[in-house]
Amino acid sequence: MGRLRKKMILMIRNSGVWLSTLLLWSCTDPLTPEFQFEDGLLFIEGFASTQMGASFVTINTSTTEFGRYRVTFVPGAAVTFENEQDGRSVALIEEEERYLPPDDFFAREGERWRLRIALSNGKIYESTAEEVLASIPISAIDITYDPELEFREIAGGTFIPGHQVAVSLEDPQGTDNYYYWSYRTYESLDFCQQCFEGAFRDNECLGWNTTTPYFLYICEVDCWRIRYPESIAIFNDTFSDGKSISKLPIGNLPLYTYENMVVEVQQFSISTSAYEYYKVLKDIVDNSSGLNAPPPAALVGNIFNPTDGEEFVFGRFTATATSVASAFIEREGIAEEALETRDAIILEDPMVYPVPPGSTIFAPCEEGKFRTAIPPNGWINR
Predict the structure, then answer these.
(1) Which residue, among 148, 182, 144, has the nearest Cα to 163 in the 3D structure?
(2) Under a CB-based contact definition with an 8 Å cutoff, are residues 326 and 276 in contact?
(3) What is the per-residue pLDDT for 35?
(4) β strands within 96-243, DSSP E
């Protein structure tokens, strides 16, 4: 066995955005770990889902910028989902550092899909085929407020407030079932743009000699900010086959603001190999013992370079049946302090501040990964 070889990469993922710490090792022995940060490592993550709007692919590579290690999005790739049974190919479109299929795309139970990627440098990557399993519905979502939701290393270390999300479901009897949960939260936005030392004109902030540090601009229409999970939630039914699973915690929602919100939970039915992959990833993300902690099993996905068997590719493609449920969370009257502070409201006023022609106090709600003008399911106007 050679020396323990670890590569530590900070991986920042879109869908939410996701923040994970990935480690790769080849073998272990009693020697002191030797950490190596390398440029050019490829990270690929993809889901083909039965739920419209839940499928995506991200492609990132490790880079060094100003002495800091990070991952950056890889643009210009030709990305396709390919149906193994009928040969159908679905091209994905590059959008906001993700690759997305057409809005009406969804996989069906029993279909087998694979991922194919052609990078602009000519390199090709493929995945093994994955079968879409049966969807298992969510019976209920339970939301519980906790003033000491979780510990964070901020301000010297403190407990932060927020809500815990739990799901209930009826596990099918006689089959091995594996679950993966993700979610999005939607918070109402009052302001859609902030321009520092300038003014908002023609959909951009223009520099202007003004006496105020910034202007805020009210959303032209109802608008929601979208947030994504910061952790991984998985479960297998080894000890609960055919039973009712009640109030299983799957995530925490820190109290970033006091705005009411909707949480939309996605429950994925995944294969055994997908579960084992995400279990290792969860062990890494949840490991709080430092870089020299004993590593769990090797993180091996199902994506490969068909022309170079020696190249290692981080990540995985998963075809999955998805069930979705939403819950509205009212956060008025909470006494604990929110994590995000709100800037003082300063609007354009030509009678008070020098501004360029075409003064306005409004800005559009730009549709994207982190913002939408489409009301989320379950939203209640108060």
Answers:
(1) 144
(2) no
(3) 37
(4) 98-100, 112-118, 124-127, 130-131, 140-152, 158-170, 178-196, 198-201, 204-207, 214-227, 233-236
* Separation CA 77–CA 115 (nearest Å): 13
* Closest residue by Cα to residue 190 from 162, 225, 214: 225
Distance, in Å, from the CA atom of 145 to the CA atom of 173, rounded to the nearest integer, reads 33
Contact between 200 and 360 under an 8 Å Cβ cutoff? The reply is yes
215-238 burial: b if 16+ Cβ within 10 Å, else e: bbbbbeeebbbbbbbbebbbbbbe
> What is the length of the chain?
382
Give the pLDDT confidence of 79-111 residue by residue, as tens digits: 999 999 999 999 999 998 999 999 999 999 999
Measured distance CA(3)–CA(112) in Å, rounded:
40
Tokens at 35, concatenated:
């950490």
Q: What is the token pair recorded at 184?
A: 């999005």
- Position 134 pLDDT exceeds 70: yes
Q: Of all residues in the chain, what percent carry a pLDDT higher than 90?
A: 69
**What amino acid occupies position 233?**
A
SS3 sequence of 215-282: EEEEEEEEEEEEECCCCCEEEECCCCCCCEEEEEEEEEEECCCCCCEEEEEEEEEECHHHHHHHHHHH
The DSSP code for 286 is H
The per-residue pLDDT for range 172-215, each reduced to its tens digit, is 999 999 999 999 999 999 999 999 989 999 999 998 877 889 99
Average pLDDT over residues 22-43: 46
- Output the six-digit token pair for 275: 């579960």
> Cα separation of 62 and 39, whole Å?
5
Q: Which residues are CB-contacts of 153 (< 8 A; sequence separation ≥ 6)?
A: none
Q: Can you tell me the distance from the alpha carbon of 145 to that of 264, in angstroms, rounded to the nearest whole number? A: 17
Distance, in Å, from the CA atom of 324 to the CA atom of 328, rounded to the nearest integer, reads 14
pTM of the model: 0.84
pLDDT of the residue at 51: 94
